[in-house]
Amino acid sequence: MSNEELSGRDAKFVQSSIAPTEENYLQSLEHVKGEVETLRIISFFLNGDEYAFEVGDAVEVLKPRPITEVPRVPDHILGLLSVRGEMVSIMDIKKRLNIGSSGTNELLARILVAGYEDDEDRTGFLVDGMGGVKELRAGSVKPTDVLGGLLKGICTSGTGSTIRLLDLEKLLNPNKAA
Amino acid sequence: MVKRNKKGDRFKEFLVEAEDILNSMGRDLLKLGKGVKAGLIDPAVLNSIFRSAHTLKGISGLYDFKDMAVLSHALEDTLDMLRLDRVNLSDDLLGYIMGAHEMLVGIIASRGTEDFTLPVQELKAHLVGSCQVKKPKDDLNIDKKILATLTEYEAHRLRDNLKQSKNILIVAVRFPIISFDKGYAALIDLLKTSSEVIATLPSSETVPEMISFDILIGTVNDDNSIKELAGQIAAVEVRRIAGPLSGSEPVSIKGVEPLQSPMAPETLRRVSDTVRVDIDKLDSIMNIVSELGVLKSSVARLSAELKNDTKHSFYGIELSRIETYLERKFGELRDSVLDIRMVPIGQLFNRFETFITKLARETGKEIRLETTGGDTEIDKLIVEELADPLMHIIRNIVDHALEHPSEREKLGKPRYGTISLKAFQSGNHVVIDVIDDGVGIDEKLIKRKALEKGILSTEDATTLTRHQLLELIFKPGFTTRDSVSSTSGRGVGMDVVKENITRLSGIIDIETSKGAGTKFSLTIPITLAIVQALIVEEFGTQYAIPLSSVIEIAELHSSTVDEDPEYVKVNDRDILYIRLGEFFYRKESVQNRQNGVQNDTCYGIVVGLAEHRLCIIVHKLLEELDVVVKPLPKILRVDGVAGATDVGDEGTMLVADVTGILELLLVGRTAYMSGDEAV
């Protein structure tokens, strides 16, 4: 799949890669920066809707592996995985957002590992499938208060669909959520 | 030049080296302090402190560490005058020298982030101001040629030895050039047993393949006995050059050359075959060892399968033979990597000598520190983790438990209070006892204060057991003091102790007796880097149980376990039990019990820490593995889980926290604790 160039300031976004494989994700991270001030996001799907994190928060994408259950943890925590020797907690992001619950059975399901600061614990999010890395104009994210303040805002993709940009810090720290 | 704000490896190395130097300086200062009290100043100790200050000045200059360079320079100057006997060592001066050492420790501890310029200048002024200069000495009746080769310090030592009516001898010796460093060091050590080695002068005598030294010593022995002594190491010639018994004239040394050859002995004394290793590197080796262990058990499984396969049983037997050998070598590898991490706990105990001296000065109490078992070995990381808890315990003892000297005399106790640090190994754990002979813990006072501070509710106060009462001193914010002292009373400290020890999977026990003192017993695992674990299975999930605290394993029947909801009989003893699956609240486990559907056989794993016992019931025992326990992300940290470990193909397994489970149950079941608590 060829990457579309960011054509001037009118282009609202560019979808650089949509194939949900680890290789393509890594390639797409190297996508050329645009001239206008842009925001790069990595999107994924939950119940058919498109959600996203800022690219800087994402660490890697994994195919689902058996998750080790941990007793007495909050309901939305599925357990843990060892990612390159580091123990990473896995979150059922649908439960966290109160929109159902995730399963690993889906063919395209992936675990998106993210962390907002280097020294903080990383968390893996179980998602239905990956979208890809996209570039938006920085000002195009509109604030919203749906989903209990867990969103940074909502933006519209070039094809007219809606992308919900998640606030990783609030997702990981229940106390900070509004 | 490396700037100090550049936090590179070299800066870290510098900190480590400076810390080492300061540690040894601290020990020497302590010796010096004791010497001064006894009226005897050991020149070797003084010289060693001087050398520490000198080295410190050198390396701090190299790293642009200005405050430290200035202070160590001032210290070096003062110590130089002292060792040359140009100034008197007054109590004030000793105090300032110790103060300088303390400030240097502070500068290192701040890693260059704090500005010490002002206090350094102040202390420097004190150091200079307290030097009372003595009159210079008369000159010596010694060959000028020898004197010319001596440094000022060496000349001073020579005078001092003469003043003490000692014989001044020259021991001439030759060593083969390839092994002279060892021979030289051995000879010097031997000579030091009976004499003071004043200087080593390279001899001009040249013999092929050999290197010669003239060693200048001061001794009460005569030439012949020294010759005999040194003869154990090498053939020597001994000449007397001065001394009270001597009627002989000074012996001249043939044209001594200045110390500029690269073979000068001064530079050879630092020969050392020790390697400093970052503990992170050892950790990564540990990870590999653990992964090897997983591979090893896969090989074992395969060989067992092959043995049962009639077609391939030959290969199976062969493979299992190799596997046995692999197992043995693997064990050796694990043990030697572990051994590298081990350090004697005496390293830690030594640090408390200075600390206690300081506390004694601040509180006006007389305190003696006794240490035993300093050679007990424990993981370096754990030693560091123990430093703060022990410091808080000792600080509390000095502040709350030990009486003032006059008060102690009235009570018929010795004027000085004694704090004993005792370490000994007990299985896979090290027990550290901190014992004092102070007032003991006043349980009524604790109860009253806990009620006042709102840590304890009135209802709870009536049902409290002795054990629970003593546990109150570990609660955050607990203090028996109404005012805050500089050493303690803020209500922080003991909670930190509890927290740190728990993090190390350790346990604290207190025994106290009113008027006679208190004993804090810390039981700590020897290492956390890699643990031998028993892999068990409960309803399809595997858990690792560290073997370090396992005392025995018994086969049990589910029906007998169910007879009593709390205790189970293992080898005729009633032991508190918990079903592991149930503890972790796995649904199947609870349901199974409710439906009365049980496997007949289950296993009771009896674990123990200090005098506490617990039987953990599981359904399947699988194997033994060496596991590296990794910490969990914050959100996954739950009671009873110490961490997780990798098990091949990126799978993971939870590691049970035996101490945590034990403590939870002890606190939960008051009936178990009351009555039989040791005093």
Brief digest:
The complex is a heterodimer of chains A (178) and B (679). Chain A is mainly beta. Chain A has helices at 22-29, 93-97, 168-172; strands spanning 13-15, 38-46, 49-54, 58-62, 77-83, 86-91, 110-114, 123-127, 129-137, 151-156, 162-166.
Characterise the protein shown here.
The complex is a heterodimer of chains A (178) and B (679). Chain A has 178 residues and is mainly beta. Chain A has one domain: OB fold (Dihydrolipoamide Acetyltransferase, E2P) (Beta Barrel). Chain A is 10% helix and 37% strand. Chain A is built from three helices and eleven strands; from the N terminus they run E-H-E-E-E-E-E-H-E-E-E-E-E-H. In chain A, the strands form two sheets. A six-stranded mixed β-sheet of chain A has the order 1-9-2-3-11-10, covered by helices on one side. A five-stranded mixed β-sheet of chain A has the order 4-7-8-6-5. By secondary structure, chain B is an alpha+beta fold. Chain B folds into five domains: 9-129, Four Helix Bundle (Hemerythrin (Met), subunit A); 144-257, ACT domain (Alpha-Beta Plaits, 2-Layer Sandwich); 282-343; 345-525, 2-Layer Sandwich (Heat Shock Protein 90); 531-673, Roll (SH3 type barrels). Chain B contains 24 helices and 21 strands. In chain B, helix 3 (66-83) packs parallel to helix 5. Chain B is globular and about 95 Å long. The A-B interface holds A 65-66, 68-74, 77, 79-82, 85-89, 121-123, 172 and B 287, 541, 584-586, 630-636, 638-641, 643-644, 646, 650-654.
The strands making up the biggest β-sheet of chain B line up spatially as 6-8-9-11-10
Number of strands of chain B: 21
Protein structure class of chain A = mainly beta
Count of DSSP H/I helices of chain A: 3
Percent range for helical residues of chain B?
Answer: 40-55%
| Silhouette of chain A | globular
Here the CATH topology of chain A equals OB fold (Dihydrolipoamide Acetyltransferase, E2P)
Low-pLDDT sequence parts of chain B = 1-7, 245-271, 669-679
Name the shape of chain B in a single word. Answer: globular
Tally of discrete structural domains of chain A: 1
Please outline the major beta sheet of chain A. 6 strands, mixed
The CATH level-2 architecture of the largest domain in chain B is identified as 2-Layer Sandwich
Rg on CA atoms of chain B, Å:
32 Å
Q: Fraction of residues of chain A in helices?
A: 10-25%
Task: Work out the oligomeric state of the chains in this entry.
Answer: heterodimer
Q: Look up the CATH topology of the largest domain in chain B.
A: Heat Shock Protein 90
Total number of strands of chain A = 11
Question: Looking at this structure, what is the CATH superfamily of chain A?
Answer: CheA-289, Domain 4
Q: Class of chain A in CATH?
A: Mainly Beta
Domain module count of chain B: 5
In round numbers, the mean pLDDT of chain B is 78
